[in-house]
């Protein structure tokens, strides 16, 4: 029996509300599909492409959201080593908004050279689905050059990376990069890091590209490249600004060629801890003062040095001079380096620092870590050119 003051009715309502609340709490099961499309899109933006591929197979609604163009502007598949079939599934999501694509293969696996991981159908799909692609990076892949030619790559590319790849069936009578200037007319950056198959004569083909601004050959072997480097540097590379030749077994005689590249602003050289001489091949793969002092000026104002051998002063030092002559029948303005990295070369001494301080007027950064430069030489350079950053950065104890 309810009381007339209504307190019993209020208590009944309270019990009823608590029961309804419990029923609602048990019946409501929050899940992915309860979120709005806008919220899901924000969440999906932070997922990897492989995760989006999995979600797209869960429901039609999720598949539609996974296809949003904002999710596929930058596609980096390198965190996952995928099979060719899985990669091809991901490529179906590429769109006109896609500007970046990177993949990783299986070159570290045994017998992988018998199973190419980049096919012609791969590049055809990329070209069809992502007509505005700017960057394509292929790492640790197997490429059969007889089936996948340079003309198969998207003509829209501005940055092409073929890194640590195995290239089989290379043509013996021409460069794989022949007609690069016509096939990839917009190419600005070419990264060939870690490719021991790279033949030095390909420098000529690469040098014909009028748009190429950065060439990365880290880990490639460019020994015996003198004739190709000389011709390429004197008559090609009309737009090249950055050249990376770290760990390439390059020697003084090739390095001297690159001072003729008037557009060059950044040069990266680095030897291994034991780079001085390749005794097995009887080839000097060292970089010394001999080549570096040819940079920064023409004959008579820095492009000459005392002939003290390849390491500066030595037991057979003489008073004569070595003059680097102009190659070719025309004068070409020497490059104005802004960045010079010459690491792990004991033959780089204080002579290089003195030359750089006097003749490399555009220099902004120099790295002589692991070289034969002394602390006093580094301090003298800092005093002469305080606006230039130098590594190692020796601090005066005074």
TrEMBL record:
Q: Name one Pfam family in it.
A: F-box
Q: What is the lineage of its organism?
A: Eukaryota, Metazoa, Ecdysozoa, Arthropoda, Hexapoda
Protein name, as recorded = F-box domain-containing protein
Domain F-box residue range list: 29-75
> What CDD domains does the entry give?
F-box_SF
Q: Which organism is it from?
A: Rhynocoris fuscipes
């Amino acid at each position: 029996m309810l009381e007339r003051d209504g307190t019993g009715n209020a208590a009944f309502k309270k019990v009823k509300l608590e029961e309804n609340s419990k029923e609602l709490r048990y019946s409501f099961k929050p899940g992915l599909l309860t979120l709005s499309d806008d919220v899901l899109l924000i969440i999906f933006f932070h997922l990897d492409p492989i995760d989006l591929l999995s979600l797209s197979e869960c429901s039609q609604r999720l598949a539609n959201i996974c296809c949003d163009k904002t999710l596929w502007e930058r596609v980096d598949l390198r965190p996952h080593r995928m099979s060719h079939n899985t990669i091809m599934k991901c490529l179906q999501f590429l769109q006109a908004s896609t500007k970046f694509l990177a993949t990783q293969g299986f070159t570290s696996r045994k017998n992988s050279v018998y199973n190419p991981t980049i096919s012609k159908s791969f590049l055809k799909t990329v070209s069809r689905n992502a007509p505005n692609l700017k960057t394509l990076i292929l790492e640790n892949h197997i490429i059969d050059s007889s089936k996948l030619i340079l003309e198969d790559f998207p003509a829209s590319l501005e940055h092409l990376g073929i890194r640590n790849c195995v290239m089989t069936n290379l043509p013996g009578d021409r460069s794989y990069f022949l007609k690069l200037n016509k096939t990839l007319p917009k190419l600005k950056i070419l990264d060939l890091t870690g490719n021991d198959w790279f033949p030095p004569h390909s420098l000529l083909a690469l040098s014909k590209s009028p748009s190429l601004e950065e060439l990365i050959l880290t880990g490639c072997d460019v020994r015996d490249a003198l004739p190709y480097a000389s011709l390429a540097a004197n008559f090609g590379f009309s737009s090249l600004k950055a050249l990376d030749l770290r760990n390439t077994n390059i020697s003084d005689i090739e390095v001297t060629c690159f001072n003729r590249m008037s557009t060059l602003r950044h040069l990266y050289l680095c030897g291994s801890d034991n780079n001085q001489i390749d005794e097995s091949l009887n080839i000097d793969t060292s970089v010394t003062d001999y080549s570096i002092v040819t940079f920064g000026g023409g004959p008579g104002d820095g492009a000459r040095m005392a002939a003290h051998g390849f390491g500066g002063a030595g037991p057979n030092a003489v008073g004569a001079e070595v003059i680097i002559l102009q190659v070719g029948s025309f004068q070409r303005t020497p490059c104005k380096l802004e960045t010079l990295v010459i690491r792990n070369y004991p033959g780089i001494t204080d002579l290089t620092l003195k030359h750089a301080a006097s003749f490399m007027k555009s220099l902004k950064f120099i790295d002589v870590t692991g070289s034969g430069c002394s602390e006093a030489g580094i301090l003298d350079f800092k005093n002469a050119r305080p606006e230039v950053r130098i590594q190692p950065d020796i601090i005066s104890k005074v």
